[in-house]
Amino acid sequence: MSLPTYRDFRHFPSLPPEIRLMVWEYTWPMPRVIEAASFEVVDDDYYEEFTILRPAGPLSKFLDHEFDSRVLESKPLEICPHPVALGVCHESRQHTLKHFLAMRHSKSDTGSFFFRPLHDLLWFSIDFADDKERLQDLTHFYGDQLVHFQVVLVHENDWIVDTPDGYMSNFLAPMGPLAEIHIVYSDFDDNDKLIEPKAEELSVRAQELKDMYADLMHGIHDKNGKASRIRYLDRCGRYYW
User: Fold this and answer.
1) Whole-model pTM?
2) Helical spans, DSSP H, in the chain
3) d(Cα 100, Cα 55) in Å, to the nearest integer?
4) Number of neighbouring beta carbons within 10 Å of residue 203
5) Where on the tree of life does the source sit, at the highest rank (predicted)?
6) Does any domain span residue 2?
7) Is residue 107 one of the residues assigned to a domain?
8) Around 50, how many Cα atoms within 13 Å sit in the side-chain half-sphere?
9) Residue 3 lies in a domain
10) Which of 58, 87, 229, 230 has its CA at a distance of 20 to 30 angstroms from the CA of residue 149?
């Protein structure tokens, strides 16, 4: 079976605009996790290490992986190139840039990427959270660009141990007001094995977290690092309301 050639698509420009835009959107990546990572510059007589943000893989792959144990030196779960539609033609690029933003690291192209603010999720490992200078690194190298992040992924244990108010104040304030915080189910037994919950239990837990969050947010005026709503999901990517 031969592959289609350019001539097979010669009528593409004649398609209705809405159909062409759907084709470009079909090429866009699924929601990805944007994580903080350590980046090293090594030369014969020079060494420097600093913090970057980078797409680390699709959310679905992240949830399927034991991402709880990821550290700043971990490799991405999947190579995430720029959306292909950025380089096809003027129409594909312009339409894609209406939905994706460029995040530029002031020191390294490795920390520069395109992301979709309402779909891609920012995530910090516990390794990142244990080093306060890491967040200072991000604010230094990205500056006001950080406010473009709208969705954050949080490990449930981090959310509870740091307390919701503590987590948002300590790690999310530079991002300004957020749209959503997605909390991932994380209940482990004594052998660090994930406990398989029942759907009813997760629904109850989701409501508890939302009620606690609503009580916390009542009367709070500083919205930096705070989200309009929280969502609760399991390791299969199912959300509970």
Assistant:
1) 0.90
2) 17-26, 59-64, 90-97, 126-129, 132-142, 156-161, 164-167, 199-217
3) 13
4) 14
5) Eukaryota
6) no
7) yes
8) 18
9) no
10) 87
